[in-house]
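retry 2 of 3: previous attempt timed out while embedding protoporphyrin IX containing FE. Reduced batch size to 1 and resubmitted. Inputs unchanged:
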Amino acid sequence: MEATENTHAQDHGHHHHKESFISKYVFSMDHKMISKQFLITAIVMGVVAVMLSIFFRLQLGWPGEKFQILNAFLGDKWAPDGILDRNAYLAMVTIHGTIMVFFVLTGGLSGTFANLLIPLQIGARDMASGFLNMLSYWFFAVSSIIMLASLFVEGGAASGGWTIYPPLSALPQAMPGSGMGMTLWLISMVLFVASSLLGGLNYVVTIINLRAKGMKMTRLPLTIWAIFVTAILGVLSFPVLVSAVVLLLMDRSMGTAFYLSDIFIQGEALDVTGGSPLLFQHLFWFLGHPEVYIVLLPALGISSEVIATNSRKPIFGYKAMIGSILAIGFLSFIVWGHHMYITGMNPFLGSVFVFTTLLIAIPSAVKAFNYITTLWQGNVRFTPAMLFSIGLVSTFVTGGLTGIILADSALDVNVHDTYFVVAHFHIVMGMSAIFGMFAGVYHWFPKMYGRMLNTKLGYAHFWLTLVCGFGVFFPMHFIGMAGAPRRYYSFSEFEFLDWVMDLNPYISIFALVGGAAQILFLVNFFHSIFYGQKASQNPWQSNTLEWTTPVQHMHGNWPGALPEVHRWAYDYSNPEHEEDFVPQVVPLKPGEHAH
Amino acid sequence: MKLLILLVIILAVIAIAQLTKVYELSRSLRKNKEEEISAADNKLNANLMLVWMFLFFVGTVFLYVRYGDYLPVSASEHGADVDKLMNVNIWMVTVSFFIVNFFLFYFAWKYQFKKGRKAKFFAHDNRLEMLWTLVPGVLLAFVIVYGLITWNKITGPASADAIQIELYSRQFDWTARYPGENKTFGTASYNLISTSNPLGLVTKEGIRAKMDELDAQIENVEHQLAENKLMPLMPESYVATLEDKVSRLKRHKQRIADIDENSVNGISTWESGNDDRLVKGEMHIPVNKEIEFIFRSQDVIHSAFMPHFRSQMNSVPGVATRMKMTPTVTTAEMRKITGNDSFNYILLCNKVCGAAHFNMQMKIVVESETDYNAWVAKQKMFKAPEVKETADTTLANEPKKDTLATAMGAK
Ligand code: HEM
Ligand SMILES: [Cu+2]
Ligand SMILES: [Cu+2]
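retry 2 succeeded.
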């Protein structure tokens, strides 16, 4: 055993020791480095998206007020005298949403943790294809750059909302943002999808083929199950977005009419007939709804892992958790119509979507109850990761419940496209997924960088983020119920909304403080990469395989033979063992029955 | 106010700078390792769980009390059903919210780390899992059935004697069209839209005028092209643009030629539009009469949102959408109910449609049927513009803003 380990280590050293800076840090094919590349890129994109939200929150909180800081950032064109321009407002909202959903919480979240955890937790030396994996990152990087560049073009960035419904997005005459900015948006998304597909195929193939000896599907940690289903959802739904986007590009520049019909705009009757704007919506939401689970499932997987580890208890109902993930994944493909109840879609078809959508609430409820039961009679250790995971359960439940109202077509009519929706999806998708991502970073930072993040700063970061997050989004339910539409530059034109609008300054103050709180995280993160306390091999006394690798990164992950797996990932506080955790590599004791 | 924001930001930045300092300090003071959560930290966070839960719940109750009356009583018949459904749902959701969040934060506090205690090895329990699959299942079955019953009531075709009103949207205003005395809308085609005919209503004269206008444009461009044949001065690309323009204009003509003339109630649909009433800025509807709205859009998708009537429907270019509704409370009555003498019902655009989306609104007036009829009769009728023998041969674009005033004045 010793001997083989040594030869293998030498073997690896021999193959890889002549690495240049470029092949190690830039065009790396090592999954751990690629994971870090995704994370850092996502952090940069996240900072931009938060800044954009601060800009438009200033306008919403104090409409018409002059903020020199806006002028300083956006210039005389987009914020003359420090007042945000109306078109610029829509551009900021659109790019904010796009970056958050796709770049931070899809590319960033999946890219970081799928890459880091798949090989490490299933016991593989790397991804099935290191090369595709590298391409996946570089497509992501280029598409990020294009998306950011679109903020600076003449006419401004895409402004039709992150859902870019045509004809608004198809006709450059319709608004300034539908010019060059929209073209760049579409190109960026095509590259983004290429990145997702390269990544996703790789994840699926790796999980199916490269599991270590003994790592049955029923012994996989829930993180891997969640990532597995996420990758399948992505592979099945993203191509549909590409087709939607390509058809839109053709409508924009080649005179086709997939989405356009009978339009008179800017003094001209357009030469297009026979298309349907609703076709785009069907295609978009066929991706769009699975997309929200692509965002959410990895976060749920991370929190399952973190909650079990830090409750020192097995995750409750492991099989039910897998079943729920599969059920949610499957159902997410047949609910897209709940975004289209009031488009003129046949009301009977609407009824079908009501039914399928509300079915999703069942596996979601099972997950929530299972998390809470995992805490019950546990021995709960409050690491920052654990705090964020508990926060995630709260946001998932709170935001999920309002989904019941939105799923009900008869009620959706009243709140569709209002701030109620903004509240709902920010809590259930935005906050939950961001919390999951933070939980993952705090939990696996030692694995990524070999050092620890500071715990105290982590605590402050969590509590400020939790309070400010709910402070921003919870009151929006009430603004929406009162009838305030989303994507509105200002609400000063409507008397009937005046009485709820006194909430807006408070919301904006929460947003400012919450945004500032993220500085704590940034400082902690970048400081600890270099100066954090050195991590030990298994800092959280965890069972999963990644904690059996050496702290120092190496190609191939394990110095010797690959580990062999003998039990599931959740033997915490198993009464048949002395310690309160039993790593997956520990063989069963004589007479012990496997779980 | 600005001062306050500035203050908050400065305080936040200072606080954060301080925290970072604390980090440095605590680093040097700390003896135990980062990964070992101290007893004090565990206790602190456990207690904060309870404090947070308390704040969260109190805040929620405060918001319900202060902002829970989101809209005045429904002003439409189906709206009353919708409100009932909404209240049942809100109750269910709110109670579940409190229960589940309570257990989450309470357990987190109760089972905080104690050295030497071992957690209970409790991996699954079929009875419990069955319980929380079935309970949500039953509740959701109820929500689905109740919701769909309401949905079926509020959708579906309007009755035959419903009053029809067309709502026509474009960047950035609404036009209401009433079918007039003959109770029949005239056909409309986007190909005939012009300054004097903002909805593109079809009339013989209108078609002729538009055809003449297009002919003149075609002639003009073809003339330019012919001259260029003799003496090629234009760049290739410009020639291509002009040729493209000719074929587009010809297709435009063809589309106009394809407009069918039908007959409804014995009147040609090219004539039934003559008495249509087009109104901007304000729409009147009669109380206690079923109304069927027909939505059409000129340019991009808009959405007609009438929060007080619990109604909303998208307005989509190329596809007419429909929605029925019966108003039950007149504007005057609602002013009494809300105690606000200047109260007005409102129609908002609720699908992002461009820069002025946030201000694309229309006043709605609900009044008795007699008042309504009198009001409609007072509105000017649409009549097609007289045929002008246009000698207009310039290629200039049409003016970008058409006003209804000219349309009305054209009669
Ligand atoms: C920094 C904290 C955040 C603040 C203050 C914030 C605020 C807002 C507000 C007020 C809007 C609505 C603007 C409007 O409709 O006019 C909005 C839109 C949106 N936000 Fe956020 N948000 C934050 C974080 C997030 C996160 C984490 C996500 C991830 C899912 C997200 C995704 C979106 C999306 C998808 C939209 C819709 C954009 C559109 O209408 O096209 N936001 N945000
Ligand atoms: Cu959806
Ligand atoms: Cu609009």
